[in-house]
Structure formats: structure tokens, C-alpha cells
Design brief:
The protein is an all-alpha fold. The chain has helices at 2-14, 19-32, 41-50, 57-70, 73-85, 91-107, 110-127, 132-142, 153-162, 166-195, 205-231, 236-254, 263-293, 296-307, 311-326, 331-348, 353-366, 375-383, 388-411, 413-416, 418-423.
Length: 429
């Protein structure tokens, strides 16, 4: 029965059925074939899978990102980033990465970053003489830091699955996210020098300070979110709500770029985007019941204990597995399905769950820019009017950078977590 369900899963994927429906169909058929288990178990498990206070953070962080985009806060961030790095060769591409790192501190969702930043910077880069491959590749690839630099929606999901402190995961994502961004900027500089990309005039310190002052209310958002969570002032879900309220206030009354008439569209876009992930999560919860029935967790743990004797080999297998899964599945259902299976074995190998969470989130972030599922790649390609195939070739060097940083984090976790340990050592085992 297990092999038949696996075959059905692959066939449905191959013919193009959306992944959320694939998971739900396989769960329904599999549970229907279980003795003494009614089919009503599927909708019950789907509802129970969403009955979580923590999961409220998902639509709320997406709403915060959409409010920022509609309120044109991303434009303020772009102006500030360009003032800082615009005088470097390939300055607009550097600003693309830098503003993605800033935006990551608010939204927790890479897709919102790609849409908001890409609509502005991809046309600007093309007008400045950058080729389409660079404009699309940099925009898509840099948005992956959105799920690594806190706050991060996948980290929130992982924390709920593994009973790990969300604050610990958020702190643990700071250094890896910064390393990915800086490594991308180094590659951009090498390419920019080779292709003679333009650079802007150096901006005076007074002008930079003025732009910083304008962008400061927006830049304060991640400090409020992360500081509130780490200090225990509020939970991740409450932090998401605070981010929505704060973003609304500064957009309406400080920047005055948001009006009441804009809210219906913002709410509709938020519901449309968050429903994709949450429906897949609900379906994954139902499939998890089926996987528990077949005791896949115990089977996987026994297999690794009997065949994989080295911690480093287990880490490489986990990275390779989630790289493959991420090509056709969103991070949230992927973690719902497979983290409970690998977590016990990871603990047996002495891998800290925070360390495991960072590795899993970074690996699945690559799936955002790999076809066929890569939403960030598809968004950037659409904005840049470029084929998915050419776009994928354009992001390959940046995928290489993410993988190098990922391996560095995987095998040298103490270096990655050094700064967070200084601030909150009790969160790291």
C-alpha cells in the first residue's frame, strides 16, 4: 500500500496537480485504506493542523509585508541602501541584496520581498544597462535571505514542530543570513568589474543621514519584533500583530503613503498568498497521520542507526534530501511531513535542534529559486519578462553561494552562533 501511495504521489506531481492537493488526495486515499479509520479523519486532521496560535503569525507577517509594499516603505529602503552602496561598481545590484536583507527583518516571507523589491529594482537595473540575467538572478536569489534573517515564517513552523525556542532560531538565523548576503555582494562585485556595470556618485554623509532618518521608522520594525520576542515581551504571533499595527501607523501617519481604500486589496492579497501555504500545511497534517500509521519515523531512525554511522554523513544526506524536496514542495508542508521523521535521529547524533532548524530552513530556501516550484524565481522571471529556464541559469552562481554558506554553517555551527551566544547563551544548547 505504501508503494502504491508513493507512486500515486509521483504521478499526480508529474501531471501538474498542485502540491497541496497532491498531499490531500494521497492522505484521503491512504487513510481510507486504513482499517477502523473513517475518512472523516482527513478533514479533522486538517482542521486540527491549523488550530494553532503560532500559525496565526503566518498571515500576519505576510500582511505586514504587503502593508510595507503598498505603503511604499520598500522604496525608502531602496533609496537608503543605494545611498550606502551605490558608489560601488554594480551599486544597484548591491542595493538589491542590501534591501532584501533589510526587508527580511520585517516580512518573514521571501515571496513578498521578490514582489515588492523586484517590481522596482528589476526595471531600474535594466534601464541602467544591467543584463536581464543579472537583474532577475540577483533579485530572486537575494530574496532567499527573507526566510533566514529573522523574523522567519519557516522558523516559526520548525519551532512548533520541534519544541524549540523561536527566539533561539531567530538569533541563530542572523549570522547565516548576513553571510549569504555578503557573499552574494562579493560575487556581484566580481561580475560587475568584469562586465563594467555602472556605479553612482558617492553620496555625502549628510544626505545618507537624511535618508537614514526617513527610513528609520521602517528599519526599527525588525528591532521591535526580534527584541520583543527575545526579551519575552511578546510571542512570535503577537510580534507579527505588533508589526502589522506599527507598519500601518507609520505608513498612514508618518509616510502618509497608505489610505483606507488600499486595505481591501492588501487584505485580499494577504489571504491569497497565506492560503496557499496554510492549505498545504493542513493537508500535510492529514498525511502526517498516515505516515505515523506506517511508522515511517521509526523506520527512518532504524535505517540511519544501522547504515549511517557518521554525523557528517547524516548532515549531508539531510541537506541533499531537503534540496530535492524543496524543488517541488513549499517549505512549510515539507517540514510538517519530514522534520518529525528526522528529528529523533538528529538528536541521537548530537545535533542541536536549533542547528538542525537553521540547516533545514536554509536548504529549503534554495527551493524558492529552483524550478518547477520556485516561487521567487517565477516571480522575478515574470517581472523581468524572461523564461524560467534562463532565469534558473542566472541564479545558479547564487545557489552555489547559499550552499557554500550552508555547508559552513552545517560543519562549523559555533562560528555561526558566536554572536547570538554573546547576547543570549541560555538559548543555545
Amino acid at each position: 500500500m505504501g508503494f502504491l501511495l508513493l507512486g500515486l504521489f509521483l504521478v499526480l506531481m508529474f501531471i501538474g496537480v498542485p502540491i497541496a492537493f497532491v498531499i490531500g488526495i494521497v492522505a484521503l486515499i491512504g487513510i481510507a485504506g486504513m482499517p477502523y479509520t473513517p475518512e472523516a479523519t482527513v478533514p479533522m486532521k486538517m482542521v486540527n493542523g491549523l488550530d494553532s496560535f503560532v500559525l496565526l503569525a503566518v498571515p500576519l507577517f505576510i500582511l505586514a509585508a504587503n502593508l510595507m509594499n503598498s505603503g511604499k516603505i520598500s522604496e525608502k529602503m531602496i533609496e537608503f541602501a543605494l545611498a550606502i552602496v551605490g558608489s560601488i561598481r554594480g551599486g544597484l545590484a548591491h542595493a538589491n541584496v542590501l534591501v532584501s536583507m533589510m526587508f527580511a527583518g520585517v516580512s518573514g516571507a521571501s515571496q513578498a520581498d521578490t514582489a515588492g523589491v523586484g517590481k522596482i529594482l528589476i526595471p531600474s537595473m535594466l534601464r541602467k544597462g544591467y543584463d536581464k540575467e543579472t537583474a532577475v538572478g540577483v533579485t530572486a536569489a537575494s530574496s532567499t535571505v527573507g526566510v533566514v534573517i529573522p523574523p522567519s515564517i519557516p522558523m516559526i513552523i520548525f519551532a512548533g514542530l520541534s519544541n524549540v525556542s523561536i527566539g533561539a532560531l531567530f538569533l541563530g538565523g542572523i549570522v547565516p543570513g548576513l553571510l549569504v548576503g555578503l557573499a552574494m555582494m562579493i560575487l556581484i562585485y566580481v561580475v560587475a568589474v568584469k562586465r563594467k556595470y555602472p556605479k553612482d556618485q558617492r553620496v555625502e554623509a549628510s544626505a545618507i543621514f537624511k535618508l537614514f532618518r526617513e527610513a528609520f521608522p521602517a528599519l526599527l520594525t525588525p528591532i521591535i519584533i526580534i527584541g520583543g520576542i527575545i526579551s519575552g515581551l511578546f510571542t512570535a504571533t503577537e510580534a507579527a500583530a505588533v508589526a502589522c499595527i506599527y507598519t500601518t501607523l507609520i505608513c498612514m501617519f508618518y509616510y502618509k503613503t497608505l489610505q483606507l481604500k488600499d486595505f481591501p486589496k492588501i487584505l485580499f492579497d494577504t489571504l491569497a498568498l497565506s492560503s496557499l501555504s496554510l492549505f498545504a500545511l493542513a493537508a500535510a497534517s492529514a498525511l502526517g497521520e498516515l505516515m505515523s500509521y506506517y511508522q515511517l519515523g521509526s523506520i527512518a531512525q532504524t535505517f540511519f542507526e544501522n547504515n549511517i554511522g557518521a554525523k557528517w554523513l547524516f548532515i549531508l544526506i539531510i541537506i541533499a534530501f531537503f534540496l530535492f524536496i524543496g524543488t517541488f514542495m513549499d517549505a512549510i508542508p515539507a517540514m510538517i511531513l519530514f522534520v518529525p521523521i528526522i528529528l529523533p535521529t538528529a538528536l541521537e547524533f548530537g545535533i542541536d535542534p536549533v542547528h538542525l532548524g537553521i540547516m533545514v530552513v536554509m536548504t529549503l530556501a534554495v527551493g524558492l529559486i529552483t524550478p518547477p516550484y520556485g516561487l521567487c524565481l517565477l516571480l522575478a522571471a515574470k517581472i523581468g519578462n524572461m523564461s524560467t529556464e534562463r532565469s534558473f541559469v542566472a541564479v545558479l552562481p547564487y545557489i552555489g553561494i547559499v550552499l557554500v554558506v550552508l555547508l559552513f554553517i552545517a560543519f562549523f555551527p559555533d562560528i555561526a552562533f558566536y554572536i547570538p551566544q554573546l547576547f543570549s547563551p541560555e538559548l543555545f544548547g
